[in-house]
Amino acid sequence: MLMRTQFQIGLATLWLACMPAEAHSIDIGWIRLTSRVQLDAPETPVSASSGSLLFAETEDTEPRPHKTLLSAHQQLLYLNIYRDPDYRERAYKFGPLPLFERSELQHCIRDGRRFDADNWAGEFSPSEGLLLLGYSVSCADYRHWQDDRFILLDTRTPGTPLLAIGRPTTAEQISLTPLQPMPEGLGEQWLKRLNGDSGARHYSLPSAPTYFMLDQTMPSEDGEQALRKLRRLHTNAFAHKGNAETLEPLRDFLTKHDYRQLGVGIRDVPRLLNDIAFWLAAAGDPEAARPLLEEVLQREPDRIAVQLNLADIDWQLYRLNPNLGLYEARALERYRIYCGLRLTRQLSIPKRVLERLQLSEASEQACRPHWPLLNAVRADDLSLVQRLLDQGVSGHVVGDDGQSALMLALHKPNLEIAQRLVAAGARLTGLYPYRTQLAQALALDLKEDPELARPTRFRFLAAAGAPFEEPELNDQTLLMQYASNPRDLRVLEELLRHRQNVDHRNKDGNNAMQRALTAGNFKAADMLLDAGAQPNQLFDGRLHCKNMDTAYSPIQLLANASQSERSHDDETRRVSLASFAKMLKAGADLTLGQRCGLRGKDVLLESLVRARRDDMMALLDSTDSPRQPTD
Predict the structure, then answer these.
(1) Where, if anywhere, are coiled coils annotated (predicted)?
(2) Within 10 A of 529 (CB to CB), how many other CB atoms are there?
(3) Single pTM value for the model
(4) Which of 162, 351, 392, 497 is most buried, by the most CB atoms less than 10 A from its CB?
């Protein structure tokens, strides 16, 4: 199986590493790990171990430290074990691991695409050579203990480690299921160590003492058995034209078996996968059908009809997600490849293909693939890049991984190639695959230098005209993402160097000032005011009380934030008081805002009384704040 390059896996996972939570914080260690890890394409990192597991791979070698990484492809999870600290020399790979049932996956895969898990696994070693890894996965509608999954690694004997997966059955009990045949008595040894006084039952994940039990009922299944089962399920579905009832067991099968590993080299398997993809697409599930068609083409590249089917599915996904450049790029390239193959065979081109390629008629030049430009950019071949652009290839080319040619150039960075691409039409807007290019450039600069002394990539895009007001998939602008965490003030400072609407609001009516004040990041609020943010705005308080909708002004949000526990320390009180004074000096209108029968200044005073901020009330009494019009 092909390995992803450092670049591909790094950019593909930057979004996972950097996607902001309510209080955004950059995990530099995770970014560095994901920029160099080697994984089987198209898997992405989920959670890694920060510590090391010491064991010998053979009886003739010395024990050496190993790292672990949980990776994912769609609904499948794998454990990778590396023999080096850079996660590049993989020693073992296990999976797919049955950590989740299909009924659970719909709750645990975020946006239908990825597992929302902590970047770093919990680790506990009850004895030498025995390591328990704990993974915290966020699953909607589940209690916290139901989200946790465990992997037990036993490396006390040289060679392939023994594995068991752990699932909580109750808040106090975890069931361990071995994945390989075990020597007699080994399970009892595990339980003795895990449930002992110093064992994993006192481990912090989950936080309460937990008892482990052993479940050895899972039947083993080899590749031949899995293939026989696939053929049986396919035959049944084929007889019923892939209806919902017969498709359901096939869906379940694909959540437990990696189709990439099934029947490699066996002639009938591509046909089986193609049929299943057709049924899934017909059932309205193009996301599930797409990778199966990709695998068919991987095994049989000359199947022209599959090229068209895959292009149609990508076009359908593009119409459903028009803000994601990934699907459009895939569809157009597949249509170009299909068009070229049909021309070579002197066959007609379907009308929809010409329309989507915006062609009145097909020609060899118009149906030439664009992805060779990506290879030229990766190779730093300026002359080839220019030659392809001169031949009519657009500067805006997006690859199968959703990354644009422009971001490929900036990754190095090669600013001369990047400039040529911009001049040839490279777009500065859009999500590639799930983040804006401006955000990706900033993430790359942060990985290189967390202090942002010279954010070369970011400033290049800013100078080229990339819009700062463009939201990401979470409907937040960069300014909003970096306004809430005091540790991100250096990033915020860099953002505010560039022309933008600092008061820009998202669909919920929130903006950077609201994020900063709600999080109690008073220094960020000061920086926004200095950059021109309006002191007189109204934000929805998300509360209807006493026949009025709650609305807060910035100075009222500041007062509300002063009620938090962390605002009681002297430094925070000093900073918040200075910010309060700055807001008043900027012309905060005290008549704005309302909550539960209170209006204007009364809302502010109530918050200050609750926060016991006599200093702010004294400052308020001594200040004659002029009234300003509402923004």
Answers:
(1) none
(2) 21
(3) 0.71
(4) 162
Distance CA 404, CA 430 (A): 10
Strand order in the sheet with 148-154: 122-127, 130-136, 148-154, 162-170, 173-178, 211-214
Amino acid at residue number 152? L
Model pLDDT for residues 591-618, shown as the tens digit of each residue = 999 999 999 999 999 999 999 999 999 9
165 membership: H or E segment, kind and range:
strand 162-170
d(CA 367, CA 20): 40
Give span(s): CATH 1.25.40.10, the chain. Answer: 223-356
Q: What's the token pair of residue 132?
A: 């328990």
Rounded Cα gap, residues 313 and 242, in angstroms: 18
In this structure, the number of other CB atoms found within 10 A of the CB of residue 301 comes to 10
- Crossing angle of the two packed helices 554-561 and 570-585, in degrees rounded to 10: 170
* Residue at token pair 């109690």: 520
Cα torsion 474, 475, 477, 481 to 10°: value is -40
d(CA 430, CA 631): 29
Contact 382, 390 (CB under 8 A): no
CA distance 273 to 277: 6
User: Per CATH, which fold does 223-356 belong to?
Assistant: 1.25.40
Counting every residue written for the chain, the total comes to 631
In one-letter notation, the amino acid at residue 302 is D
Per-residue pLDDT tens over the stretch 264-290: 989 999 999 999 999 999 999 998 899
Two structure tokens written together for 202: 């006192």
Residue 200 main-chain phi, psi, to 5 deg: -75, -10
The answer to whether the CB of 468 falls within 8 A of the CB of 475 is no
Fill in the DSSP letter of residue 567: G
